[in-house]
Amino acid sequence: ARIAVLISGRGSNLQALIDAAANPDFPGDIALVISNRPNAKGLERAQEAGIQQETIDHKDFENREDFEAALNDALKIAKIDFVCLAGFMRLLTDSFASDWRGRLINIHPSLLPAFKGLHVHERMIEAGVKVAGCTVHFVSSEVDAGPIIGQAVVPVLPGDTEETLAARILEQEHLLYPACLKLLIDGKARLSGNSVPYTEDVI
Ligand code: GRF
């Protein structure tokens, strides 16, 4: 299977996917990395791994539809089967989400449906939650929503700051994302109506 990863920044989840896919047993190849920001650190990671990369800067387009048409063209030319959002900071339209329905996934640093959106770690510390984690889910048109493929849980510890909590969650993100992508490619995580039939523990 041919995988595209869409990023906007650091690209540590992209790196985890690249590293996992380097294993000959992994059922897919990271064939394309697209960033909407020209200076994303993740683009360097793609380059180092010898992966085709492209910047499609949303600022070059008049509207979301045109931006997404450019994304779609790049994905089609590269014959992409599945798309992973990894720190991709643009909202996608209903139309893009439905074009890629069942083949488009995202990772979010909370136990969804709790703490959607931005500044998640800060909000979790403020709320005083005792457990946190991350979620990989199919993308629907609503932000950070959609049928859940897998989750990993971490404790929130006394004295945690945004940074320490984010680091603990990120470590799990890097395990969870490749594991969920593998389930997707293998057809073990699939959409049925608006949910994902339970298959097995992801990690
Ligand atoms: C991760 O925390 C991911 O869950 C969220 O954005 C962050 C991206 O980090 N969607 P990176 O670019 O993968 O390092």
Automatic annotation (TrEMBL):
Keywords: Purine biosynthesis, Transferase. It comes from the Bacteria. It is an enzyme of class 2 (transferase). The keyword Zinc-finger does not apply. N(1)-(5-phospho-beta-D-ribosyl)glycinamide binds at residues 11-13. InterPro entries: Formyl_transf_N, Formyl_transf_N_sf, GART. Residues 2-180 form the Formyl transferase N-terminal domain. Transmembrane segments: none annotated. The keyword ATP-binding does not apply. Its EC number is 2.1.2.2. (6R)-10-formyltetrahydrofolate binds at residues 64, 89-92, 106. One of its GO terms (cellular component) is cytosol. Pfam families: Formyl_trans_N. GO terms for biological process: 'de novo' IMP biosynthetic process. The record marks 144 as: Raises pKa of active site His. It catalyses: N(1)-(5-phospho-beta-D-ribosyl)glycinamide + (6R)-10-formyltetrahydrofolate = N(2)-formyl-N(1)-(5-phospho-beta-D-ribosyl)glycinamide + (6S)-5,6,7,8-tetrahydrofolate + H(+). One of its GO terms (molecular function) is phosphoribosylglycinamide formyltransferase activity. Belongs to the GART family. Catalyzes the transfer of a formyl group from 10-formyltetrahydrofolate to 5-phospho-ribosyl-glycinamide (GAR), producing 5-phospho-ribosyl-N-formylglycinamide (FGAR) and tetrahydrofolate. PANTHER family: PHOSPHORIBOSYLGLYCINAMIDE FORMYLTRANSFERASE. This is Phosphoribosylglycinamide formyltransferase. It comes from Hyphococcus flavus. The gene is purN.
